[in-house]
Amino acid sequence: MSKPDSQSEPAEVQIRQMTRRSFATGAAAAAAGLAGYSWLRWFAHDPAVDDHLPWPLRRVLEWNERVARQVLGNERSAPEFAAVRAREPKVNGHQGLAGVVNHDTWRLQVSTPAGPDREFRLAEIQALPKYEMVTELKCVEGWSEIVRWSGARLIDFLVAYDLGCRGGGGWRDTARPDDLFRYVQLATPDRAYYVGLDMPSALHPQTLLCWEMNGQPLTPDHGAPLRLVITVKYGIKNIKRIGHLRLLDERPADYWAERGYDWYAGL
Ligand SMILES: Nc1nc2c(c(=O)[nH]1)N[C@H]1C(S)=C(S)[C@@H](COP(=O)(O)O)O[C@H]1N2
Ligand SMILES: [Mo]
Q1: What is d(CA 212, CA 149) in angstroms, rounded to the nearest whole number?
Q2: Are strands 183-187 and 194-198 parallel, antiparallel or unpaired?
């Protein structure tokens, strides 16, 4: 990302830009309304997590407080339910689930336009703060199920491993929403199933990289070793058996969008 050269810019231009920025922040927060703001607070000050957060995550919570209103302000959180209501969802969709995955040799391969590619072991994802949520999985075919999921937030993964901002840069204090890539694509190891996500949805606090369902390790049918659970989207975006994660600025290909479904598939 190129930044305006502060040396060559008159101070009043800079001040005007800064004012416009803070105005935009306030306006977005107001437009988001109470629903948006309440999850933002929950996101930014989670007492269960705040105290023992590794420093990069603590830093990003502060970062979130400042910019989340601009990036994520219009995303709402989905309702959560009592754990006793959780059931096993029916196994639906087998694209990209052929064969078996060895959890020891499995890697999450991450690529960005600038490269180089990076690889992550399951343990590196499981080392992140673990979240649990009891939410409704909604399939476009008309059924839904309440399920208890556990895993790490996708945003925490991106922040902890300095992914998501252009130029290979991490989530520095100076990072701004427009430094972020605009899209994320996730694909199965064989790339037979793939989903595209807009960045605000990818960064939502209820977007989890899950390795457990209803308190048990994921079964292969439900996406072991790692699947996405994203409450702001229909089931089709909740990709099972993730093998690849790509950060990019062009809207990525999506398996069901190519077959006539809405690319955003938002709820
Ligand atoms: N790899 C992969 N992930 C997938 C699918 C698929 O065909 N392949 N189907 C999707 C659809 S349409 C739904 S509704 C959910 C169902 O998740 P479940 O089988 O765990 O209930 O998985 C989603 N993730
Ligand atoms: Mo589905």
Answers
A1: 6
A2: antiparallel
Instruction: Tell me the sheet residues that pair with 156.
Output: none
Protein residue with its CA nearest to atom 12 in ligand 1? 236
Please state, in angstroms and rounded to a whole number, the distance separating the CA atoms of residues 109 and 206: 22
Phi, psi for 50 (deg, rounded to 5)? -50, -45
Burial 164-203 (b: 16+ CB within 10 A, else e): bbbeeebbeeebbbebbbebbbbbbbeeebbbbbbbbbbb
- Give the mutation target among 216, 219, 240 for probing the ligand 1 site: most ligand atoms within 8 A of CB: 240
pLDDT in tens, 185-235: 999 999 999 999 998 899 888 999 999 999 999 999 999 999 999 999 999
- Å from CA of 236 to ligand 1 middle: 6
Q: Is the CB of 235 under 6 A from ligand 1?
A: yes
What phi, psi does 220 have (nearest 5°)?
Answer: -55, -40
Convert the pLDDT of each residue in 111-129 to its tens digit.
Answer: 999 889 999 999 999 999 9
Give me the half-sphere count of Cα atoms (radius 13 Å) on the Cβ side of residue 79.
7
| DSSP per-residue codes, 130-186 | EEEEEEEEE-TTS-EEEEEEEEEEHHHHHHHTT-SBGGG----TT--GGGB-SEEEE
Please report the atom of ligand 1 found closest to the CA of residue 90: 21
pTM: 0.79
Cα of 174 vs centre of ligand 1, distance in Å, is 38
